[in-house]
Write a sequence for this structure.
């Protein structure tokens, strides 16, 4: 039996290749993700090993509470550790975020994702693999800076240049570039910009005089690292700890791995979607192949093969395809990993490189997933094959085993769809309250709905395909009409092929509607929710806590065009064990942000907090109750809830007074300043005037709310494009399914096409006929996808309405465009089968058997 | 009655090359007169189907020429051949003669629709009527009997008033009643409508409906007969075989 299977496989190489392609791409994406993240992970491991080489002990803040910028330690107490027995050398260090280097045009460098660091940097006897001076001198004194090699190269800085640097608390200041640094062998830290100064200068910049992030210690010759740590522990300042350099390297590596794990999961989920679509494509291909081989299978049965053997034959075929495709997929994965790397580098994100890493785990996952998906896909077709009766070999009319009636299909399909919807809605509306990850339920539910709808879709395939085919029949006359009829003739095949496309289009629709609705919600807030004309905000779209000097608000308030300003600070604190944004507000804040409804006072005083009504409800925190916030710098603090507010702009708000905020974060810098114009000044005039005032603070930008809105739109579109790009893989796999189906259909209809050619269908008309049919199938899939996607989006937005999503916006133009594009792609992916159909040998096609 | 609808001049068709080459038709010259019903007869492998395929523009000759309506088919491109088949030639095959997704009427007008022309309503009516298909036009092939399907195929072949109709064992899959009906209708098409039909068959009864029978053996024309009867044809075949 095995020999028969293998021979049959080899005899149908084309069929084999087409089936395998879907698996190859899906497995390729998954193994590519693994190869890429493993490679980066390994490279980072190497960097941190090097970075802590020569450092015996690291003193730093206890990192368990670290979630924001870090905790600072008192410099005097750290320096006293030099007196501890066994400490040979101690180098204090300080690092911070939000230190922005300006390019030659005075514009901020970076801020589009990777952080902007400042580090203290000094010459030591310690041989560390961290930052090292490549050229020039170490920075000394308040006027000197060293910058990472990548930033230097990107901006054509040369040693001796005057380079401006901006801290959150002050305006831009010029520094002389005295040196260029690398981090180990790397030119920068994963795309971040790094400005290095002497310790005093960093302290001034960060407003952390007398404070440190930690210190590196080298022990005296002969002293044991663990012994010294034991001696250090009793004399460490509060909140500090001492660990060995090796432990520090390991911790850093683990932190990086965790960061990569998120990235990995994000990419893998798109790979999983692609493979799910692949399952549909492969199952459909197998089903068609089994139908076409009915005679052959029946002959085997007539010659004595058992139903079981026929079943196994199909499954063995699937297994072989699965193994071959998975191996090819791993190879493709290597290529994709390389492309991913090149792509990210094009965005200026230089991640460390190591030789491409192929872990055994990657191979195992690729094989298990690839073979598993193929076998699952072949399961039902194999069962169908085993039911081919031997008599089918002898009788002309009995070409396929009888199908289940469509009513059975309707019942099963409806049940599956209903079950999927139940899981989906549980995830959306119930699990949110209970706690387990809703996304798991939503994803599973959506997957089940896809299966249910694909079972149901043959029921509507006839009328819908007729409707979609109508323009083709009009445009191409007879070839169009033939395509329309062909798409209708095999509703199961048409639906199964379309169902694979449906999935990708559903997800793209979902993403588009969500993006449009988020835009709509934000427009609602900006348009009606905020009683301000102009906003001054940090020039960083990625870090909500990015801030600028409070000096700007003072200047703005003095300008005659400005009637009133309201400052806001934003920081991170732990509330209910989750990281939350805590804002500091002024007493006029409620005038700028009108409420729908409120209780108590909206102007928090010392020890008081105002929160979103929804937060108060879900955490049982009525006015008068106590609320705990855990700050990095000051630890756990108790606040009295003095007021609650509801309204679009108050969603998720936890607001304390400005004085309290500054106390708990130890820094005074604004994240937003809201500005109301004086009578007689338009928002544009105010913007122009304030932009001039903010010229020396390039880390801040002045915008009208109209500009803010278009900025937000641009950001959302970027994210949407990224997600759409990743979902394109699923669409491509589904389109390969279209190629598959059409190729097999052409094969099946050889005689019919031959007859048409004989009576005068030209080659061109033949190609048109096949391409039109493919296009009808593709549009059918796209229409299904758009409908289901709209429904999913509506359901999700319903579930999120508590979170402030007020708008349900359908981007009609975008969705219509997607349907048209899918139809055109259907034509493109049918070029090959159409070409084959037009090249059929007419005589062979119409020859009698 | 003497003008020529199609002719072959020194037509040769060889399959394969070298030692394995098979000559299907071997220097055949033959003329098919207009408004006549000609049968080509011969045993299996005599080259009768190959001759018909080459005459109909479905296959190319190795050497020699074929003309349909005065046009040399050898100089035509694939597109021109397609147009010739569509406009000047009608086909009736043994089996699988209709497109299953189209109705009887749509099948009949298929070549006309492919050309993007309007059907000649009066002509179409008379063809459909004479073939007894009037009440079957909205049916799909699956809803028609074998005889009805072949009559639809015949109607399609006649619908565009082609120069020539080629029929390849048109009654091969039919029972004797349906077969007789179809063959009589084809003869009427020649008599009443002045069509030209060339039919390949190995059935002496089918051949007896024609005006003239051409006998083929080993790729060569070996004999001819006008106004045949089944018995005469059978005798001739026996003589040829003996």
């Amino acid at each position: 039996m095995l020999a028969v299977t293998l021979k049959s496989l080899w005899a149908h190489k084309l069929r084999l290749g087409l089936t395998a392609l879907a698996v190859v791409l899906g497995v390729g994406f998954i193994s590519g993700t693994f190869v890429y993240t493993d490679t980066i992970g390994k490279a980072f491991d190497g960097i941190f090993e090097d970075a802590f080489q020569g450092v015996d002990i690291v003193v730093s803040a206890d990192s368990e509470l670290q979630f924001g910028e870090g905790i600072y330690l008192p410099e005097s107490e750290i320096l006293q550790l030099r007196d501890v027995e066994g400490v040979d050398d101690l180098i204090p260090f300080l690092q911070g975020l939000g230190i922005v280097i300006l390019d030659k045009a005075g514009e901020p460098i970076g801020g589009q994702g990777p952080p902007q660091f400042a580090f203290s940097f000094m010459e030591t006897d310690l041989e560390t693999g961290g930052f090292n001076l490549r050229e020039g001198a170490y920075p000394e004194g308040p006027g000197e800076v060293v910058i990472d090699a990548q930033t230097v190269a990107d901006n054509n800085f040369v040693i001796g240049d005057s380079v401006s640097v901006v801290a959150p608390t002050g305006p831009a200041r010029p520094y002389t570039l005295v040196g260029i640094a690398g981090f180990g062998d790397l030119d920068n830290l994963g795309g971040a910009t790094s400005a290095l100064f002497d310790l005093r200068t960093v302290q001034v910049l960060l407003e952390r005089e007398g404070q440190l992030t930690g210190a590196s210690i080298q022990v005296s010759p002969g002293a044991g690292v663990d012994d010294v740590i034991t001696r250090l522990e009793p004399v460490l300042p509060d909140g500090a700890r001492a660990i060995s350099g090796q432990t520090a390297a390991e911790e850093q590596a683990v932190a990086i791995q965790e960061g990569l794990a998120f990235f990995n999961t994000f990419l893998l989920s798109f790979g999983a979607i692609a493979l799910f679509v692949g399952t549909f494509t492969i199952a459909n291909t197998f089903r068609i192949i089994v139908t076409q081989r009915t005679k052959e299978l029946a002959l085997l049965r007539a010659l004595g093969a058992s139903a079981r053997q026929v079943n196994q034959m199909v499954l063995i075929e699937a297994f072989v395809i699965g193994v071959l495709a998975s191996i090819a997929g791993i190879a493709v994965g290597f290529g994709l990993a390389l492309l991913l790397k090149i792509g990210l580098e094009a965005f200026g994100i230089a991640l460390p490189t190591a030789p491409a890493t192929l872990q055994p785990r990657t191979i195992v996952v690729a094989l298990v997933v690839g073979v598993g998906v193929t076998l699952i896909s072949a399961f039902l077709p194999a069962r169908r094959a085993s039911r081919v009766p031997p008599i089918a070999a002898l009788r002309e009319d009995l070409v396929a085993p009888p199908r289940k009636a469509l009513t059975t299909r309707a019942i099963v399909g409806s049940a599956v769809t209903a079950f999927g919807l139940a899981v989906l809605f549980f995830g959306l509306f119930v699990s949110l309250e209970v706690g387990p990850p809703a996304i798991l339920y939503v994803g599973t539910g959506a997957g089940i709905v896809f299966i249910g709808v694909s079972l149901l879709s043959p029921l509507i395939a006839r009328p819908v395909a007729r409707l979609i085919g109508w323009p083709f029949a009009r445009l191409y006359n007879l070839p169009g009409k033939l395509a329309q009829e062909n798409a209708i003739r095999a509703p199961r095949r048409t639906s199964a092929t379309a169902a694979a496309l449906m999935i990708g289009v559903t997800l793209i629709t979902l993403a588009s509607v969500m993006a449009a609705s988020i835009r709509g919600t934000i427009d609602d807030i900006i348009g009606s929710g905020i009683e301000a004309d102009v906003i001054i905000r940090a020039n960083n779209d990625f870090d909500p806590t990015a801030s600028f000097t409070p000096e700007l608000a003072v200047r703005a308030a003095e300008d005659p065009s400005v009637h009133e300003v309201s400052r806001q600070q934003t920081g991170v604190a732990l509330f209910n064990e989750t990281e939350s944004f805590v804002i500091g507000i002024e007493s006029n804040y409620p005038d700028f942000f009108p409420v729908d409804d409120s209780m108590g006072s909206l102007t928090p005083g010392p020890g008081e907090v105002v929160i979103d009504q929804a937060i108060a409800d879900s955490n049982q925190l009525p006015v008068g109750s106590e609320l705990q916030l855990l700050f990095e710098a000051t630890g756990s603090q108790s606040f009295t809830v003095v007021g609650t507010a509801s309204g679009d702009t108050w969603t998720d708000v936890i607001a304390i007074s400005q004085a309290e905020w500054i106390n708990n974060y130890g820094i005074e810098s604004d994240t937003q300043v809201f500005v109301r114009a004086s009578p007689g000044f338009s928002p544009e005039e105010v913007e122009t005037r304030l932009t001039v005032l903010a010229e020396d603070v390039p880390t801040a930008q002045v915008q009208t709310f109209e500009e803010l809105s278009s900025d937000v739109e641009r950001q959302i579109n970027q994210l949407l494009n990224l997600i759409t790009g990743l979902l394109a893989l699923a669409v491509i796999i589904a389109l390969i399914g279209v190629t598959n189906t059409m190729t097999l259909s052409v094969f099946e209809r050889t005689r019919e096409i031959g007859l048409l050619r004989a009576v005068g269908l030209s080659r061109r008309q033949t190609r048109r006929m096949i391409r039109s049919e493919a296009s009808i199938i593709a549009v059918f899939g796209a229409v299904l996808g758009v409908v289901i996607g709209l429904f999913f989006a509506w359901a999700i937005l319903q579930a999120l309405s508590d979170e402030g999503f007020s708008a349900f916006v359908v981007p009609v133009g975008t969705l219509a465009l997607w349907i048209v594009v899918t139809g055109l792609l259907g034509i493109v992916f049918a070029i090959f089968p159409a070409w084959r159909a037009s090249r059929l040998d007419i005589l062979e096609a119409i020859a009698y058997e | 009655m003497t003008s020529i609808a199609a002719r072959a001049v020194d037509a040769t068709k060889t399959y394969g090359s070298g030692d394995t080459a098979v000559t299907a038709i071997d220097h055949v010259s033959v003329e098919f007169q207009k408004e006549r019903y000609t049968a080509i007869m011969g045993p299996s492998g005599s080259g009768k189907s190959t001759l018909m395929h080459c005459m109909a523009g479905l296959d190319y000759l190795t050497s020699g020429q074929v003309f349909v309506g005065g046009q040399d088919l050898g100089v035509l491109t694939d597109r021109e051949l397609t147009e010739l088949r569509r406009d000047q030639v009608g086909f009736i095959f043994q089996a699988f003669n209709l497109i299953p997704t189209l109705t009887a009427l749509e099948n009949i007008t298929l070549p006309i629709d492919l050309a993007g022309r309007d059907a000649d309503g009066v002509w179409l009516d008379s063809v459909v009527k004479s073939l007894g298909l009037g009440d079957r036009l909205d049916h799909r092939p699956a809803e028609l009997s074998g005889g009805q399907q072949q009559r639809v195929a015949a109607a399609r072949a006649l619908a565009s008033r082609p120069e020539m109709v080629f029929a390849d064992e048109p009654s091969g899959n039919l029972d004797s009643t349906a077969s007789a009906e179809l063959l009589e209708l084809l003869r009427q098409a020649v008599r009443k409508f002045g069509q030209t039909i060339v039919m390949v068959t190995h059935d002496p009864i089918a051949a007896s409906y024609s005006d003239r029978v051409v006998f083929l053996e080993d790729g060569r024309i070996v004999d001819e007969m006008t106004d045949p009867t089944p018995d005469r044809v059978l005798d001739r075949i026996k003589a040829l075989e003996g």
Remarks:
- The longest strand of chain A covers residues 562-575.
- Residues 113 and 542 of chain A are 6 Å apart (CA to CA).
